[in-house]
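Quick one before lunch.
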Amino acid sequence: MERRPLAGAAHGLYAPRHDDRGTHISARPLDAGTQGPPARPGDTGQEPALTAAAPPASRYLMAVEHTDWAKLPEGVRDAVARQLGMPYTAADAEDAANSGTAALLSLCDGRAVFVKGQRDRTPAAAPDGSVDDGTSWWGPDWSPVDELDLEQAVNPHLPSSAPRVLWRLHAHGWHLLAFEGLRGRVSEYTPGSTDLPLVAAALGELAACATPPLRLPTAWDRWGYYCDARDEDQLAGSRLLHTDPASTNVLICQGRARLVDWAWPSLGPGWADAALWGMRLISTGGHTPEQAWTWASQTPGWNEAPPQALRVFTRAEARRWQDLAADHVAGASPVAEAAHAWACFVASHTPAAAPVTLTD
Ligand SMILES: Nc1ncnc2c1ncn2[C@@H]1O[C@H](COP(=O)(O)OP(=O)(O)O)[C@@H](O)[C@H]1O
Ligand SMILES: [Mg+2]
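Model of the adenosine-5'-diphosphate complex:
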């Protein structure tokens, strides 16, 4: 059975609207990545020994079309003004990757409110005819609105680095979620950046967070497809994970790193976010893998992470990006290269490492 996660998975990782450096790109074509079996280089066409549920079907690609704030129906903007109780000016978020709309609203009393939104659910049928086999955590009807629901549900359980949800609105076909607005800037991941200790501290704060009493996908739900079936234990864990510590999701504000964009919270091993951050330090910041390792090791739990688990996880992430690059997702190729370099470094840097390839 075809078990490959179809492009446009629920966690939106398959359809970024900006590349890894934050450059705006157009939405991915609807048919991208929806044809054919897995295309990992070296695949022999045999069924891989993978048992994890695949993420859901790809109609999601269609759903995350972005609308600038000014182009929202007037009734939506009026409803927001009523909710705020005063006029405001809106500045579209430049780095929105998966929101239907996202803007920082400046109120006339000086406050700021960040609002992200999604259109009403689209019909359940996938446009490409793809079928969810019912085993994925997300299920066949998952939509961007569910992501917004999850982001809202997890918010009270997040560490203080995360901006708080203020209110939720449903008006004229749009679901809007409002947060404490941060007047900050996107973090800088280059070597020597003074933001890096702040990011490490925010990840440290997250690592100390209690497990929220919510139904969340696990790391195995998210990455299991890219692992061998026997590796499930390696991704076990019940720590709260952000799972997308891209520089655009970490804002620097008043000398602090703030973790935003909790659309894809998951449960897993506590070191997983640091492993993902290490990859981003290479892909976005131009760190060497050695330098990235040094930063990852500043986060709690990194030095106790089981080497085999680190190898499995970084390899899974590299395979995922390799798939995206093979699907010609804009901006994915350089990230795939960085993820590969990181996985290879982790494999060679951790004790008892067997030679690893992305296709073994
Ligand atoms: N609370 C906030 N205050 C100010 N800006 C924010 C806030 N949250 C997010 N942003 C900015 O808006 C961008 C898009 O928001 P994000 O939650 O990341 O949505 P998406 O899922 O579209 O990536 C972020 O990259 C960040 O620059
Ligand atoms: Mg984001």
